[in-house]
Amino acid sequence: MAERLNVNPTRMEMQRQKGRLRTAKRGHKLLKDKSDEMLRHFIQIAKQNKALREELDGRVADALRIFLRARTQMSAQEIEAAVATTGTKINVEAGVANIMGLRVPKIELGEMTTDTSHSILNTTASFDTAIRELTKLLAKLFELAEIEKACDMLAQEIVRLKRRINALEFILMPQIENTIRFIRMKLAENERSQLVRVMKVKAQLEAAEAGSQG
């Protein structure tokens, strides 16, 4: 059972606690609605993440198989030299997107160019194909990184919201309700005590009046 707050049992304090309880209930509902909506977004993005990862796993594996085939046709020094001189230029702009008030990273990709002119003369067809395929995957890899980061941030925010919801639902709100119940009982007890005192005074006055008349 939740403990009550340490307050003076007065009518003014009871009204203050009732106001706090109304505010806590509204906050609880807002946080619950926000958490549910974030969870819906998280499930949606997690599905995209799963589909994109499965697609990339297959395509990267295919590109690496082609690259391994190239390694059997070229020496290690030739491959290292070709990789070192293969240049890919891509314009990347980092921004933010807003999901239910949560700012998550947003990556905007511009034009991408790859210089493979040397490969035509110095490398095998397998190597050139592998480089082209891996280059095509860059945009998807950026997208996957963006989605996975959004999933991670959403998951952390959902956990944080859940803690706040639980704190309101199982700690603060029960404390306030117990406090209001305690104040109500104390006020009723005081009223009964006051009534008893009034009745005693009245009885004493009536007895004194009867004695004086006698």
Can you give a write-up of this model?
With 214 residues, the protein is of the alpha+beta class. It has a single domain, classed as Helix Hairpins (Orthogonal Bundle). It is built from 4 helices and 2 strands. The protein has helices at 11-71, 76-85, 117-122, 125-213; strands at 87-99, 102-115. It has a two-stranded antiparallel sheet with strand order 1-2. Helix 1 runs antiparallel to helix 4 (125-213). The radius of gyration is 37 Å and the shape is rod-shaped. The two termini are 59 Å apart. The model has no long low-confidence stretch (mean pLDDT 88).
Task: Describe, in short, the structure shown.
By secondary structure, the protein is of the alpha+beta class.
Q: Can you tag this structure with a few keywords?
A:
rod-shaped; 4 helices; single chain; Helix Hairpins; 78% helix; alpha+beta; 214 residues; two-stranded antiparallel ribbon
Helix-strand layout with pairing:
Blueprint: H1 11-71, H2 76-85, E1 87-99, E2 102-115, H3 117-122, H4 125-213
Antiparallel strand pairs: 1-2
Separation, N- and C-terminal Cα atoms: 59 Å
Helix-strand sequence? HHEEHH
Helical content (DSSP H or I, runs of 4+): over 70%
Structurally, how many domains make up the residues? 1
CATH architectural name: Orthogonal Bundle
